[in-house]
Amino acid sequence: MADHLMATYGRLPVAFTRGEGAWLWDGGGKRYLDALAGIAVCGLGHAHPRLREALCDQAGTLIHTSNLYRIPVQEALGDRLCAAAGMDRVFFGNSGAEANEAAIKLARLHAHRRGIEKPEVLVMENSFHGRTLATLSATGNRKTQAGFEPLVQGFVRVPYDDLGAVETAASNRPSTVAVLVEPIQGEGGVVVPADGYLAALRALCDRFGWLLMLDEIQTGMGRTGRMFAHQHDGIAPDVMTLAKGLGNGVPIGACFARGAAAEVFGPGSHGSTFGGNPLACRAASTVLEVLESERLAERATGLGTRMLDAFRAGLAEVSGVEQIRGRGLMLGIQLDRPCGDLVPHALEQGLLINVTAERVIRLLPPLIIDEQQADAIVDTVVRLVRDFLGDAM
Ligand SMILES: Cc1ncc(COP(=O)(O)O)c(C=O)c1O
User: Per the confidence metrics, is the pTM higher than 0.85?
Assistant: First the structure.
């Protein structure tokens, strides 16, 4: 069937031909409720009328020029996103991994300018930052790295949500220049750190003169109930990366910087052929407008709380369910055993879910779902989990 595609993905045997809102249809006309949104990408759902209109208009006007020239729609998007994020400057690429590559390069250049020859970036165990060589080296998952050695040097790993380990690293690793961290670990299993973790990291970065670099690729764009997850903590990063929900499916990534970090890159430091082209920037501008005008982050808070409460009620005292956690519409249900088999079971029932870190059911529905859809997701997942764990209702 897919003989000429490199076998990089273990794909489910279904192909979707059409989408609308939180619904997808396969070629046979079967309808599925999408509780994954292309892994936190389609926050506005599928075929959103305002995005469709903007993209058709832009495709009929200008898709691409080059960063050799000014791109007004990129400049306008930069202004709007920086205002929303409290950042000073942004570099646009095409994916999450590229956004993180830019952040890592920025940290190194910043350090070299300060006379640190072999800068090191603190990264977390169980993290995920992408599949390029530098970002897989930063990623805290041996499976992602295996076979691709030698890895890129200059990363020091500490456990997530462990401030003591960061302080120890500070005394042992004098060449540390930055911390790269996800506000909530996504691929690692929807791991929510203790309250105050990001604020304490901010304080440590200030104390040691490090850059706080937040990977908001999965948590950004309204997903956790604020436009950016760190806004729950009332702190400001020095560097922040975005992708996924930024373009609602049109590839775009972004690396933001604030203060001194925003002045690090100059002409020739970094670049991308496609990055920030008119089509991608028009998509992201429209996504931002819709998120703001439809108050989708607030919606994520309300629906997320509703779903968490319903999961906690529906799975209370079911043995085998270890923890139910999340923030906004980024939800995880951790079981005591590997549960990848739930994904095809859910598909049969017309529901798209994901399992990550082997035993965490991850739900990342579009932010536009309504209450009935949220309840339908919970009902189906509760039933599937109970069946899977042999706990009849
Ligand atoms: C937190 C985080 N960073 C980076 C990435 C990599 O993004 P991309 O697949 O667009 O390169 C992902 C993708 O899952 C992610 O969740």
Answer: yes
